[in-house]
Batch of 4 targets.
Target 1
Amino acid sequence: MVTSVTSAPTTTTSTASQSAGVSLAKNFDTFLTLLTTQLKNQDPTSPMDSKEFTNQLVMFSQVEQSINQNKNLEKLISMFSAQQSSNNLNFIGKIVDVDDNEVKLASGGSAFWSYELPAGVSQVKYNIINSAGKVVRTVTQTSDQAGGFPSGRIELAWDGKDGSNNAQPAGTYKLEIVAKDAGGKTVDGTKVFARGYVEALETVDGVQYLVVSGNKFLPEKVVSVFPAPTNDNTGDDEGDDETTS
């Protein structure tokens, strides 16, 4: 059901393990050169104690193992990142609901949210708020059904205009919902989600984001995915339209 309020991946490979491996090899070569020189020039009547250089050999071996483990870990991380990027590509061209109530309104465009009401809600007040915290549009809807509004995900479509039918400027807007029961008591538990079309992927400082109708969200914030509609009405896959005046 729809409520209408009207009037590419980059992979970065670390070179830390490679540098550590080169440094260890140089140090080990130096150590062997010094050890060989000491052994050649030791006093036969008072030979060197083998414990010290044996301990150093053990330490070199442990460091080498740690470097190899880091290399393997980097490979696993790289494989995981590549797999994650591949999975994120599947979002492109889909409609998603994101665990966030902020959406971006384009100039002359529309904005969409979805929401879930708890049981027993008979009246819903929608407040659309701009980035300055000002309420630019308020709509109140009352259910004429016994038991209140049905449960399930409902889409809210806003045409970008205030109560006087004036188009609002492009920017970020939030949806606030105040739900009440038949007795006028406020009911808690309403969930609001930003809804939009996944246009692209964008990587910022090594972190990949979904570009959803101009806004950037982490992929893990996606709570629902829907196939893109065949026309401009993003609510066609959600059921019959419900218009709020």
Note: Residues 114 and 155 are 4 Å apart (CA to CA).
Target 2
Amino acid sequence: MMFILLILPALVAVLIDWARYRVMKPERRPSHRRWLAFLVADTLPLWMLLLFSMADNTPTVMRIMMWIIWAWLFFVLPRMLYYLFCLLRCALIGRVVAWVIAGLLLYGVVWGRSNLVVNEVEICAKELPDAFEDYRIAHFSDLHLGTLVHTRGEVSRLVEQINAARPDLVCFTGDLVNIRASELDETAMELLQQIEAPVVSILGNHDIGSYIRDTITLSPLESTHQLIARQQQIGWTLLQDSTLYLRRGNDSITLSGLSFDRALRHDRHNSDLPLTGAERTYHNVPDSLYNITLVHVPQLWLPIVERGYGDLTLSGHVHAMQLKLFGWSPAQWMYTRWSGRYEEQGSTLYINDGIGYVGYPMRIGADPELTIYTLKRCE
């Protein structure tokens, strides 16, 4: 399937360019050099076949693949759209559309990719104990360390913004790395250790080693163990289908964390997922206490609520597919709930758009997000 997804776009682009070349008048045809440049751009995805044939998908390989995808989009997509408008006899509109698309792609990789935004969200709940009034939680997700273009700069900005918000607690909802534990290297550990508030985290689908190609050198289970150890080394508390109690004065609330189940790897985008690990996570946890649940995939929100928990559920995973324009995102084709705040049955779900990026090194509209929640008691 992956080979088809790579060959088909290249083949279609080449055929369209060839058809366009044949119908043009000889005096208006591009030079041979320009025609060759078109062909090279059209066939960029074919170079990824070579990368897929390599023994392992190292961070370098993954970064090259991301840039190939972006380069193909930048050099081919605007031109294809221009051809389409020319076919409709709207060449001028086609030029405008092509330049706009090219501009958006440049914006996404130069600015949108690292334009960290801080969203302040107030959560009002009558079940909240008095002692937790104005309790502040910082939430970030999907760091994908292995694909960051400038790890030190992007992580430093994140840590600075977290500390500037002065939260009582920091929650991370999975996908700290992209492929393997070694992506959480000394530089990243040093930076993340500078977060001043306590950090609680969970594992996402990328954290459990599911995408490691060379499993002989490093098994998924060993990578997961290493990642857990490194998080503990920097002082993070990792919740693996477990719950801890947060206490303030004489009051307490519960904080639960569900790890991503490796059995769901191929179903991670499905709308109907089984709530695995719930028995362990909520064992002997009174549902009368206000509960915050961390879960990587937002599809599990309603099953959590139906069990009597998740007064506030924090999630990530979707990234809004790193494209959000005028309230629309292609994520809507795959997810019922894909970004931001949702309310149902007296409970709140918030899907953080994440920090890093997968597939291509850009974000358009779906900026990297740090969310700051302020808990309020209300009737």
Note: The first strand starts at residue 117 and ends at 125.
Target 3
Amino acid sequence: MRTQDFEGSPTGLLVPISGLDRRYGEWGHVAFVAHQLPEETPQLDVPTFNAVSAARAALASLNSSARQLPNPSLLRRPTLRREAQSTSALEGTYAPLQAVLAADEDDDPADANLREVLNYVHAAEHAFSWHGAGRPLATILLTELHAVLVRGTAADNEQAGRIRTIQVVIGGHPGGRVQDARFVPHPPGPELERKVRDWLSWVDESHRGHIDPVVAAGMAHHHFETLHPFNDGNGRIGRLLIVLHFLYAQVLTEPTLTVSPWFEARQADYYDALMGVSAHGDWNRWIRFFADGIAASARDTEDRLLDLLQVQADLKMRIRKAGLRADNAMLLVDFALAQPIFTVRQVERRLGVTYPRANKLVGQLVGIGVLRQFDEAVYDRSFAAPDVVGILLRSG
């Protein structure tokens, strides 16, 4: 870490750290310790305030549309998988989106990357259930999210599900020196645990009346990433917390927002803008970038949700016109939205029907063009509603 980049930073200070490396021997360096977040809005220029206003408007429109959905949780599931794939890709864990859409959430996939992506889905669902139960943000939620996120991965060790007790670095490489990392976050220990509690208190406090929720969410995201409280998964948890922040601030009532695809497409700018706050106190650049991302993400999420809702209605109309009035045919359409790529065995389990009945249902919907075989397999074939998959796979 280039110490000269952070000397005199208005948002934090450098503290000495040291250790013993089996490869390099004893070492000494510094870590960046962020100051407590301010209780007032940082100095922002007019274009940034305009970006914040645009983000608020886009979030309000998304929230209005989500509240009108007959079953918002149904349409949330496929967009959550898209978020899971993208937020994991930002951290270097890549699984093709088609594989993520096809994965059975009850299975334990052999592919390590796919398992890690699905872990995010489970972690997000746990977070949304926590909020839905009226429970406040708390350290125990953060540690539980981390435990779920790293379950069965290389990071599933003694550090899993706890505030880290080791020093970590950002932007280094395996086997590299601490000094060569791009950023060295807060040292481990009781002070880090206290800072996490302070961060939770800041998010929960009444400064919401003084700081716009979009600005507050951007400030909170930077601070969480700067603390880097876990040995792994901080970026994914931090982006999930953006959505939770808007839920707790009552900006959103449904956790439909997906934020990571926009940031993934601008990965270098995302990390540079975050670093600019730590190094130079450049809140203006970061908040404008963050607000632009939230606005674009909210608009894109709303467009996809409304398109999925229209497809759902069109497919059910096609079923009625074909004279297929069985309730299970309609339920299969709903299932095709929640699980965009699926097998007959999955239909059997989810609809609670026999395999022959599930196979007949799928065949009938293929026959009228509602479904299509997704692969070229002869056995254990995969199916999908093409219009649903097209909405989820299209670029933002």
Note: The chain has a mean pLDDT of 93.
Target 4
Amino acid sequence: MSKLKTRFIKYSDSGFEKKFNILINDEKKSNNKINIKVTKILNKIRENGDNELNYYVRKFDKINVENIKELFIPKDILKKAYDGLKKEQKNALNIAADRIKKFHIRQIPKNFNYKDKFRIDLGLTHSPINSAGFYVPGGKAIYPSSVLMNAIPALVAGVEKRKLISPISDLNKSSIVLAAAHVAKVTEFIRMGGAHAVAALAYGTETILPVDKIVGPGNAFVAEAKRQVFGKVGIDSIAGPSEVLIVCDETANPEHIAIDLLSQAEHDELAQSILITTSQDIVSKVTLAIDRFLTEISRSKIASSSWYDFGAIILVENLNQAIELINIKAPEHLQLILKNAQKIISKVKNAGAIFVGPYTPEAVGDYLAGPNHVLPTNGTAKFSSGLGVIDFYKRTTIVNFNKNSLNKLGKHVITLAEAEGLDAHAKSISMRINR
């Protein structure tokens, strides 16, 4: 392996702010060529349905079928895949699913109604969307955990039609993904991926009914497709490459820190892993450990590209500086390995998920901690949150005036409507009240 250098930045360096901004704003987003290609694919699917979808499935997913119906994996095949798992795999899936379900059940929102001082009945009610599509990547790797994380919250919310799409070309090699779909009780599993699959879920074809919302991360083409179909359907977010920010002091185990950084880097060449520490000794030891681990892990090439292109170690003078950088970065995953980690959690305003202490590596969140692993990336944790049950609900408000309450408040409505020049609004009130 070539001896590439780890990017190292000191908070006390002149020009630190510029260096940090370059680090967190490295261009990893979809480019204009991707936008144009995705637009073409979406339009083709919308205009030509099954025929065009079959063309793209053959071209990109390398799945050859005569009829789109052949892309649907029957539920008995999902059950067979589950039954054929090794005992430890079956046990792990069930434990993960149970923990995810229990955490998400606690998120079910409560309806409310009340009568105010004017005797007006006001309320808010939640109802599940009718259908949802779950995107689960299947190109470079298989992700049974993503099946559970996407599908179980919708199941808990009461979504009736729950469709999973994933570009699985070999059912045997992906048996654990099929098994996860059985455990998560998806209602349909369709073998397809990419922008064309997103288009099929958004617009529908002769064979595939459209859904109300599409969730789940994918590559740049999937992200761009979700962006373009938003408005026709709902989406969770525009997912970017995965990322972790680890903040530690001298009490941390440098080898644990190093492997935690690489566990994020091995996801994708564009993933980003950053360490912020108050200890120069940690800087040196983590750097050495990373170099060693990169010669040992199976996805070394991917992890190496991610780490040396987008990773960094930042030395700060104190935790206040670290907190400042956390909130600027707004990381998808934040690990705090500090003597007094609990004391700074309240100061963290922007993070998708926080993992506290030396025995809570981010990897537990990927699989079975309970909270969702579909999280905001690219700094969007400043204004958005991870996938949850609430994402599969609609809110509806309820208003019920009686004659007396309209008589008491109607004059104010008329005043405001007339100020806006909306005479019909004003008249709809004045015709009903005693003036």
Note: The domain at 8-28+240-383 is CATH 3.40.50.1980 (Rossmann fold).
